[in-house]
Every structure is written in C-alpha cells, then in structure tokens.
From TrEMBL, chain B:
Keywords: 4Fe-4S, Electron transport, Iron, Iron-sulfur, Metal-binding, Repeat, Transport
Superkingdom as given in the UniProt entry: Bacteria
Keyword Aminoacyl-tRNA synthetase: no
MF (Gene Ontology): 4 iron, 4 sulfur cluster binding; metal ion binding
Name the record gives this protein: L-lactate dehydrogenase complex protein LldF
UniProt source species: Granulicella arctica
Domain 4Fe-4S ferredoxin-type as annotated: residue spans: 305-327
UniProt cross-references to InterPro entries, sorted A to Z: 4Fe4S_Fe-S-bd, 4Fe4S_Fe_S_CS, FTHF_cligase-like_sf, Helical_ferredxn, LUD_dom, LutB/LldF, LutB_C, NagB/RpiA_transferase-like
PROSITE patterns reported for this sequence: 4FE4S_FER_1, 4FE4S_FER_2
GO biological process: lactate metabolic process
Automatic annotation (TrEMBL), chain C:
Domain LUD: 119-216
The protein's name in its UniProt record: L-lactate dehydrogenase complex protein LldG
Transmembrane segments: none
Record organism: Granulicella arctica
Pfam families linked to this entry: LUD_dom (PF02589)
Length: 245, 480, 222
C-alpha cells in the first residue's frame, strides 16, 4: 500500500525517532511510505486554545498536501481526533464547498498509526521484539475520540519478550491538555503526579502511548524525579526487533 | 471558603482559586473519595443497562427538540399548570425572580420558609434576598443543611457538601444544633438532621423548591430526591413556590421514561432515587393550597441564541461530569467560583454571565472528554469549551503576548520554509537553557514567562539535532 | 400583574428571536413523534422472572419484601405489622377488602394535620404500579393510596402490590400512568436514604425509615 505519512509538527521537531520507527514498521510490512514535504501542523493547538482564525488556513494546507493519498497515517491520536472532530466543521465555517467535499473524501483515509495496523490492516503481530517491562497509558483522544479500545494493547501483547503490566487508572488524563499544562500548571501537575505514581507502582521500565504529547508530559516528571523510567512511543516498540529480520 | 456567596463576577480566576483549593489536603482527600465512590456506583448501574447508549441518544434528542420549540412548550406548560390551579410567573433575570419570590412569601404572612435543595435558588442567591427581607430560609436537604449551618458554599450539583468529611460535619452540627455529645457515624449525623428539621417541617407554612422537570403536556412538575425532605416541603406547607429555569421543560409525560432512567443512574449511581414527586397545580385533597411557579430566563435565552452553545441547556444537572472530571477531582467545586462547578460549570457559568465574567473557566479543562463520555444527554462539553475559548480570544483581541505568539506560530505553520527556519531557531533559542545529563542527552529545567508553569515540576528534553524531515531528505539522497 | 405580563412577553420574545421565529405546535408535535426511542420499552422477561426481579431490587434498596398468594395477604400483613411492633396505623380511603387484619387500630385518613400524621406508627397503602427493574412502587392520590403526606410523615410504610400491576421497565410504567398523569404521584424506591456524608448510604432521613412490600401473586399463577 502507498502510505502517506503525516508526521505532525511536534513529532517532526521533537520526536524524529517516532517517525523513523513508523517508517521502519510500515516498510517491514511491505508498504511504501511517502512524505509530502509541505506538511506542517494540523492546527490543533490553535483550534483548542480558541484561535480559530489561525487554525483555519492549516486545514486547507493539510488537504492540499494529502489529497489523492491512498491512506494517511499519523503517529498521534490527538491530531487525528482534531481532524475527525473538527475539520468538517472548519470546512463549513470557511464556506468552501469544494474544500468541504475534499475533507469528506480525505478523512476516511486518515488513520492513527495503531489504528491503521489493527483496523485497516487487521494486524496484531508486526514482528517486534522488545524484552522490557512496559505499561501502557491510554491517551484521552485515542481512547474517547478515536475509540482505539484495546487495539494498542493487542499490538503490544503480540510483541515478543515484552512484559506488559496494567496501569491503574489507565483511562485517566495525564494532565497535559496542550496549553492547559501551562495555563493551569498547578492542576496539571497534580494530575500528572497521580499518573506518575501509578506508573511507578507498575515497576515498569518504560511507559508507552500512542501520543508523544502525553509522553513528553510524563517524561518531564519522570526525569525530574530521577525515576529512571523511560517513555517510548508505541511505534518505537513495534519497530524494535532482535536483528534476525 | 466562608459564607461569601460564590459569585462569578467577583471570584478569582480559576488557576488562582485552584491553587488555594489544592493547598487544602483534607478537601482534596474528601473530593477524591466522594467522586471515586459515585463513579464506581454509576459505572455499576450503567453497566447493567444494555440500552444505555440508546437512552442517551433519546435523552439528547428530547432535550434538543425541546429547545428548538421552547416557546411552544413553555406556553403549553403555563396553560395546563394554570388550568390545574397553579399560578405562573415569569422572570427575566435573577433580580426579578428574587423579587417575585420574596413578595410571594411576604404575602403569605410567614417569616420563614423550608427549602428543597435547588441549584437554581443558589444561582440567583435567593437566601440572602430572603434574609434581607426578614424571612428565614431553612435548608432541608442534608448537604444543604451542612452548607447553611457551616456558613459554607455548595461545591457539587448533586452532593453540595461532598468536600466535608464526617468529622467536619459533626463539628458543624455540634455547635449549630447544640449537641455536645453528637457521634460521628453518618447515621448519628443523619439522625441529628432528622430531629433538627422535623419540627420545622411540621410548623413552617411556606415551601420553596426548584424543579427537575416541567411537563408541558400536563402542567405537572417533577422533583427527584432521596431523603424525603423534598416531599415534606412539597406536601406539608400551605403555599409552595417553585422556581425553575425555562430550560427545565419537557414536552410530554412520556418523556420521563427516558429522563427518569438516565438521571438517577448518572447522578447518584442508583437505579432509581428513593423519591420522585410529580404534582400538577393544586389538588384540594393533597398538598399545598396555593402553588406558584416562577419561570426564569436569567441569560438562558442568550445561550439558546448561540447555535454551538445551545446544547448547554440540555443539561439535567446530574453532576456525572463533575465526578468524572480529573480537574474537578484535584480542585473540588469552589475553585470554579460559581454554584455550577466542574465541566458543566465551566461552560454554563461564563454563558450565564453573557461572557462578561468567568473567562478563565473555559480553560479549566484538559479536554480529556471524560465529561462527554458520561453525560446522559450527550452534551459535547469539550466542543462547547473550545467554542467558548474562541469567544474569549475574540474578546481579548490580538494585542497580548499569548495572541501575538499564537499569530506568529500560525504564520510559521503556513509555510514549509518558515517552519524549517523556526525549527532551527528553536534549537538556537533553547541552547542557553539546555543542560546535558550523563548520557549526553540535553534537558531544560527552567523556562521563562508563560512557559514557566511547565518546568515547575517537569523537565523538557532538548530538541534533537535533526528533525524528522531532515532525516527523511538525507535518507532519500542516500538512496536508502 | 403588569410586570409579569411584561416579563412573559420579553422572555417569549427572546426565545423566538433565539430560535429564529415562533415555533408551531403542529411542527413540534410531528417532530416529537419522530424522536427515535430505540431503548428497551417492553418487558424482556417471563412474568415470574419479573416478580423475582422486583423482589431482588426492592431488597437491594433496603425494603423488606414478601410474596404471597391472594388468600394469604391478610396473614402476611398481620405478621409484618407484628414484627414491626406497630399498632396505630393510618390507611387511605378506599383500601380493598381482605388486606387489613384484625387486632390493629386502623384509622382512615380524614385529612389530618401534619402533627396528627406524625403521631401514627405507620401507614398501609396499595400502589398503582410497581417497576421491577428499578425496585420502585408508584403511588397516586387514588383509592387505596391516598394523599402524599400520609405515606411520608409516619415512620413506617407497608405497601401492598398486586402482581398485575408489576411491570418490568420504566417505559412500561409511564404508559400505565399516562391516563392518570395529573394525579399527585410519588415514586418510592426503598426507604428514605441519603449518601450526603462521605457517600455512605444511610437509611431513613426524613421520609419513612422502614418500607415493607407485600406482593400478591396472580390468582392463576403456578
């Protein structure tokens, strides 16, 4: 399959390893990856903070970059949620019938990375090997907006060597929430503290998720507290192998 | 938080109020315990309903439909209630509602009233108005009694005193009821309330209530409660005065088949709460001889006029969103500076204030969506929060640091060239802040200005040397 | 009241402006009919199972329940009243024959004042309908059920329910109640209770602290 990768602005800038891992997994599965060079940002930060006028041009940009794609894969559940939940309404606001039609055609082809593997390709075992104790945090947008359900967990369970442990309060928000973490830093920190306590209680070496924004937030506290617990995007676990392939 | 009423016009902004609330470890413990228990109970009784999603959908559709025809249904309610002997009053705002109620109480000749828990009377700050007119209101719901005697303020729509534990409640009752020997078992405390209020129920001739539902088809009113204090106030007095927001109407009696299923399960985690009362006007052989109902707007029509905000009016005040909210869990209700706390408060309060106050509330959410997931009438609270944030941004204009930064970021994202330049600039800008750890990984432990909140408890990994797109391009030229 | 008329016109005017003009009752009726109600609206259990469910759910909310054959009602009521140690009992007008046993002081409600009601040990009534799924008995101001205060002020309530009046779901109950929807109506689900203190469920705050329910099986059953 010809897969167009939408890396997202913060993965591009801050988490290139996640993008490389996505490419590795998809190519290992025999797919061709394309990267439209003009892509930037889905507009989530602006839209969710109330800056709609700044978000609107980013919709047109995304559509222009990806129209004609066979599928679009995005290693970020919150960015996919942004598109699914808000792009149709944004197109409506722009009052552009052609754009609205393009959005309607494009959206069904857009998948979050784990969703692409489990729902679109029907896979669970992608041939990964990761001999570590790992716990999984269900990021809110993946859980509620995309309805990923146990898809990511099924992928993880199929990883050879993994010791997967359940996280208490797995469905509770980590407190990131984009600009929320800055505007309401104290409340966000308190939510984060509950989440890191739960992670430490699992005695996992690493916490994984489908969203680097949550992981960056968790990592910030896990590093500050010198816990030694790593955060790692699901794609990076699935890309790991024992070198025999 | 003392006797000062929760007033969005004077309340501190949410981050400040939250900071002081979170300093109260006992409060946080109480709130966490209470919300955990209710959520568990709710999950159990919702789990036994295979048709829960269909009920939610029907609930949403009924409420939506009602709002679209609100004039028809209010007039129908008025007609039928009047025919049955009730007297219908209309109030444009809180002041008018207060004036009507105070005048009605005065006309009965009583200088005291018994009250059912009603968030609408809290919204309009009825008690201070009654007291100013020389009328003593007795709150009769256990939680509201705790609040009233403790000179406190409600912190939850359904369980207003959930921020208090048994020891704190015992102290209030000991002092205010003059019961030095009072025990601290919940049963002891409930018994004390029963004794304290019994005499008032039998003596006071005027009752004041809110309403859960007004039934247009019959002119009936429905009140949902647990303790029986509601039934006491609704049936024993000679005069009953009910105040209800115009949003409380439902088209037909049959619609209760949905609302009476979803409300109790969502609110208290019960299949059905102990008592639902439905009455229609005045019945010579049952209950008060005079019944007045005040239909109050108080900015609800402003919300109705906003296509995206309108769904806020669908709320049936179950409080499930508060129990599910991870923000409310940390701060409790008082931080919201309004009688409507939690996610629903974060969207309802600013709109009731016509977007002139409480502008920090739409930002008091991580947009995690837990509120929407539990809402029995499917109010998409995150969607409304975002809508209200946009209104706040528009009101604030673009001449402030945040707006300028957002505009600059917006420009950057509109061009690949600018985006790449910004990525390079970011690495340069952050470099003075980066400290290397033992593995050669760079970390930022302090950020300036608005971003400083992040680094209070978190580090930030420094930017990698190479962006993904740089890697991708190199990989292409390497022929790999 | 002139000011109220002004307020009425103002509020209705604002509503009509907000919804884009006056709505019509006919349109509203048609749209209401079209609201999808795809939830469970009819019974899904056998009659016997419905009665069992009612009993289970009533007990779950702290009511005491017995199920009896029609000929056993009087005895069942008698032993419940004896077990509760109550003597002075209020009954509504129109209690059916064959429910109330000998040996107790049954006083028919003559519109007593609140303090007079408070002096009774308890009250015995029938019910219009009972809802199995939620463990609810529904009382209306009708013969054998009486006015609302009578089942509220005394501390003990014994409610007699005919199996023919037991439905499984809330929607079925609303259909049964529709014809008498304007009567004063009370849904009772267990004794008075609160969870306002640390979410601990406490039985009995202001309403009756004790609720007994006698379910009379259909004459033809089993």
């Amino acid at each position: 399959m010809r897969v167009s990768l939408f890396i997202t602005c913060y993965n591009d800038t801050l988490f290139p390893e996640t993008g490389k891992a996505v490419v590795r997994v998809l190519e290992r599965l025999g797919h061709t990856v394309e990267f439209p060079a003009g892509q930037t940002c889905c507009g989530q930060m602006h839209w969710n903070t109330g800056y709609q006028a700044e978000a609107l041009p980013l919709l047109s940009r995304f559509v222009a970059q990806f129209k004609g794609a066979e599928v679009v894969v995005v290693p970020s559940s919150s960015c996919v949620a942004m598109m699914r939940d808000h792009y149709p309404k944004m197109a409506e606001q722009l009052n552009d019938a052609a754009l609205k039609r393009e959005v309607e055609e494009l959206l069904p082809k857009v998948f979050e990375f784990s969703e692409f593997l489990t729902k679109r390709l029907g896979l669970e075992d992608v041939g990964a090997y990761y001999p570590h104790r790992v716990t999984y945090h269900a990021s809110c947008h993946g859980l509620r907006n995309l309805g990923l359900g146990d898809g990511p967990l099924r992928l993880l369970r199929a990883v050879r060597g993994i010791d997967l442990v359940e996280l208490q309060g797995v469905e509770q928000c980590c407190g990131f929430g984009g600009t929320f973490a800055v505007k309401n830093a104290e409340v966000s920190s308190a939510m984060l503290a509950e989440k890191t306590t739960a992670i430490l209680n699992t005695r996992a070496e690493a916490c994984t998720a489908c969203d680097n924004s949550c992981l960056m937030h968790l990592q910030g506290a896990l590093h500050r507290q010198r816990t030694g617990v790593e955060t790692v995007h699901l794609a990076e676990i699935l890309a790991s192998d024992d070198g025999t392939r | 938080m003392s006797g000062t009423a929760l007033d969005p016009r004077t309340a501190p902004v949410f981050p400040m109020a939250a900071r002081s609330a979170m300093g109260d470890t006992q409060l946080r413990k109480n709130v966490r315990h209470a919300t955990d228990v209710i959520q568990g109970k709710r999950a159990r009784v919702v789990g036994e309903m295979p048709d829960w999603q269909e009920l939610r959908e029907a609930g949403k559709r009924i409420r939506q439909h009602t709002m679209a025809h609100l004039d028809v249904y209010l007039e129908e309610f008025e007609r039928n209630c009047t025919k049955a002997g009730g007297v219908v009053h209309w109030a444009r705002d809180a002041a008018e509602a207060r004036r009507i109620i105070v005048d009605l109480v005065k006309a009965t000749g009583s200088d005291e009233v018994i009250k059912i828990k009603s968030m609408t009377t809290e919204e309009i700050q009825l008690n201070p108005a009654l007291e100013a007119a020389g009328i003593h209101p007795f709150e009769t719901d256990l939680a509201e009694l705790i609040i009233q005697l403790g000179e406190d303020q409600p912190s939850h729509i359904v369980v207003p005193a959930l921020h208090k534990n048994r020891q704190q409640i015992r102290e209030i009752f000991r002092t205010k009821m003059n019961l030095p020997e009072l025990g601290e078992r919940p049963q002891d405390l409930a018994d004390a309330a029963r004794m304290f209020l019994r005499e008032k129920f039998l003596r006071v001739k005027t009752g004041v209530s809110g309403a859960n539902f007004l039934i247009a088809e019959t002119g009936g009113v429905c009140v949902v409660e647990s303790e029986g204090n509601g039934r006491m106030c609704l049936t024993l007095p000679e005069t009953l005065i009910t105040v209800a927001g115009i949003d409380k109407v439902v088209p037909r009696f049959q619609d209760l088949e949905v609302l009476l299923q979803v409300l109790p399960r969502s609110a208290t985690g019960e299949r059905m709460n102990p008592y639902n009362s439905i009455w229609t006007g005045v019945d010579a052989a049952d209950g008060p001889k005079a019944f007045h109902i005040v239909l109050m707007d108080n900015a609800r029509t402003e919300i109705l006029a906003d296509a995206e905000g309108r769904q806020t009016l669908n709320c049936i005040r179950c409080g499930a969103c508060q129990n599910a909210c991870p923000v409310y869990r940390q701060t409790g209700g008082h931080a919201y500076g309004s009688v409507y706390a939690g996610p629903i408060g974060a969207i309802l309060t600013p709109q009731l204030m016509e977007m002139e106050h409480a502008q920090s509330l739409p930002y008091a959410s991580s947009l995690c969506g837990a509120c929407y997931e539990v809402c029995p009438v499917k109010i998409n609270i995150p969607e409304v929060l975002i809508h209200l944030r946009n209104k706040v941004v528009e009101q604030n204009g673009m001449r402030n640091v945040e707006a300028l930064a957002m505009r600059a970021m917006g420009m950057i994202f509109q061009s690949e060239r600018r985006f790449r330049a910004a990525q390079r600039m970011g690495r340069i800008a952050e470099s003075p802040l980066v400290r290397k750890d033992g593995q050669g990984q760079g970390w930022i432990g302090w950020l300036p200005g608005l971003l400083g909140g992040w680094t209070q408890v978190r580090d930030l990994q420094s930017m990698p040397k190479e962006t993904f797109r740089d890697w991708w391009e190199k990989r292409g030229t390497d022929g790999k | 009241m002139a000011s109220s008329a002004d307020a009425r016109a103002a509020v209705l005017g604002r509503i009509r402006k907000a919804i884009g003009g006056a709505s019509s009752a006919d349109v509203a009726r048609a749209e209401w009919e079209a609201i999808p109600r795809e939830f469970k609206r009819a019974a899904s259990h056998e009659r016997g199972e419905v009665l069992e469910l009612l009993v289970e759910r009533l007990i779950d909310y702290d009511a005491h329940v017995v199920v009896v054959r029609p000929e056993g009602v009087t005895d069942a009521v008698k032993s419940l009243l004896e077990a509760r140690g109550v003597r002075q009992l209020l009954v509504p007008v129109g209690m059916p024959d064959g429910v109330l046993p000998e040996g107790f002081a049954f006083v028919v409600d003559a519109g007593f004042g609140a303090s007079e009601l408070d002096a009774f040990d308890g009250v015995v009534t029938m019910a219009t309908v009972a809802i199995a799924e939620t463990g609810t008995v529904v009382l209306q101001n009708a013969a054998g059920q009486g006015r609302r205060a009578a089942t509220l002020v005394p501390d003990y309530h014994l409610c007699v329910v005919q199996a023919t009046n037991v439905v499984e779901t809330v929607p079925e109950a609303m259909v049964r109640l529709q014809a008498t929807a304007s009567l004063a109506t009370t849904f009772v689900s267990g004794p008075s209770a609160t969870a306002d203190i640390e979410m601990t469920r406490i039985k009995g705050v202001h309403g009756p602290r004790f609720l007994d329910v006698v379910v009379i099986e259909d004459a033809g059953s089993k």
